[in-house]
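Sat 14:20. Reprocessing the chain from the morning session after the first attempt stalled halfway. Input below, unchanged.
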Amino acid sequence: MRVMKWSIIALAVAAGTSQMAIASSQDESKGFIEDSSLVIKNRLLYMNRDYHNGSSVANKKAGLRNSYFEELGLGTRVLYESGFTQGTVGFGVDAHTLSSTKLDTGRGRTRGADQFATNSEGRAEDTQSEAGGAVKLRLSSTVLKYGNMVTESPVFATDDSRILPEIATGTMITSNEIKDLTLNVGRFTAMSSQVQTGHDSLTQSGATLKSANIFGAAYKFTDNLSAAFHASDVEDFWKKQYVNVNWALPLSDGQGLTFDFNAYRSKDDGQKLAGNLDNKVWSLFSGYTIGAHTFSLGYQQSSGPTGYNYGIDGNGTVFLGNSVQISDFVGPNERSYQARYDLNMAEYGVPGLSFMTRYITGKDIQLENDDGSNAQGKEHEWNLEVKYVIQEGPAKDLSSRLRFSQNRANGVENAANYEDMTDIRLIFDYPISIL
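Finished this time. Tokens:
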């Protein structure tokens, strides 16, 4: 496997050496102010989650009081990105402020783990805020950034599924010197969580991030075929490697096939602060589009004595086809299948309106009860999503999204992720561009 992954990178480099970028990005710089942007992103999020097993194992193991919670909050993000100064080396800065406001919840309706931090009395905090920034420089088509940032690497990805995003602190270098080849190298030493705005507030198994070194390479072979390889070394937690191949096959006007393959290899490292990890997981997802309709099928398989684990390296670090609203379907030796349908109503005269539904079933999950006996888990999940984005007028780009999910499982004694659950989210996003 390692030889195959590295051969992809070697092929990408060999193919790209004769295709140097026509003009560097820095040559096209208009200036620090001229290329700057200022955006205010507002998010209103209502979240309702019900563990149907009452005072469930999931909540007891997490030290949480409630098996049902309901929270409504508003998040505001002010994001400023400067351009680069002109010259051989360009300099710039990025800055942000993040704030969250509790609109509705109560001591009996908050978990203190999903949207808001809680005080010593177990009540959700009324407001939270943070500010941060990063300095950056660009030479040719290579950018170095140091400071606070969001990341999207498959082996180190900040999550943005709540009111506020996770924020990573570290250094990232992104290079696009060779046409169609993107290289990333980074080192990160802290991560803030989505519910606590402290500089290094994200924890896993009681520990914070020490350091994470990451590498990534992505190459676009043709307009329809691309591949990527990424690797990470998260100190005293684990090491991971990831590979992706994406292929789009046009059939005719309005028809086409897509194939997306993703795979992780993970192994615990050092002090194993999050416990043992020894896992391989891969997914293959294919879709057929005809006009407004897309029909998709997916298969995912996890193998090894443990399931796939992530979190301290960002709660978005799970780029797999069957990672959905509640479950990721990555238990030990779990096999899962997905059927999905998407509808784009623009084809019927309603641009901005879309619909999605999918069903995933997983089985053969190798688990262990608290008494040491073996158990076999299974789960299935149904998701429904309706989204509308206003296309023009004063409220242009305002989006509203309703997400509904039901996950049902066989309730293995100590398996926190394999219990009945219903999750409802109503999300309004409204970006306002100032510059």
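Residues 2-16 form the longest helix (15 residues).
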